[in-house]
Amino acid sequence: MLKLYCETCKADEEHRELSGERERGWVRSKTGKKYVHDYWMCANGDCRRVRYRWSSRSPRPVMMKMPDFD
Ligand SMILES: [Zn+2]
Predict the structure, then answer these.
(1) What are the backbone dihedrals phi and psi of residue 58, each rounded to the nearest 5 degrees, phi first?
(2) How far is the CA of 65 from the centre of ligand 1 (A)?
(3) Residues 43, 13: contact at Cβ < 8 Å?
(4) Which among 10, 60, 62, 70 is least surrounded, fewest beta carbons within 10 Å?
(5) How far is the CA of 10 from the centre of ligand 1 (A)?
(6) Where on the tree of life does the source sit, at the highest rank (predicted)?
(7) What residues does each domain of the chain span?
(8) So what's the pLDDT on residue 44?
(9) How far apart are CA 70 and CA 32, in angstroms?
(10) How far is the CA of 50 from the centre of ligand 1 (A)?
(11) Cα of 35 to ligand 1 centre, how many Å?
(12) Distance 1 CA to ligand 1 centre (A)
């Protein structure tokens, strides 16, 4: 877990790494990137906003909310 700023929560919140191929595949499809290990997801409640590790801005203007695959 890593504390990062979340644009949805408007606060520093715990983020977790993507887990599993479904989550990584989803982010790949959204970003068009093959390497997505530097994307983290907000773990505050059901926020699930995905952000790039090194910038709080989304790679695209769309809001990247991770679907719940479980
Ligand atoms: Zn959040």
Answers:
(1) -65, 150
(2) 9
(3) yes
(4) 70
(5) 7
(6) Bacteria
(7) 2-52
(8) 97
(9) 23
(10) 8
(11) 22
(12) 13
9 C-alpha to ligand 1 centroid (Å): 4
Query: pTM of this prediction?
Result: 0.84
Residue 67 CA: distances (Å) to CA of 24, 26, 47, 54:
12, 8, 10, 22
Q: What is the pLDDT of residue 58?
A: 55
pLDDT on residue 60: 54
Q: Is the dihedral of CA 48, 53, 59, 61 positive or negative?
A: positive
Residue by residue, pLDDT tens for the chain (70 residues) are: 999 999 899 999 999 999 999 999 999 998 899 999 999 999 999 999 999 888 766 555 456 899 988 7
How many residues appear in the chain?
70
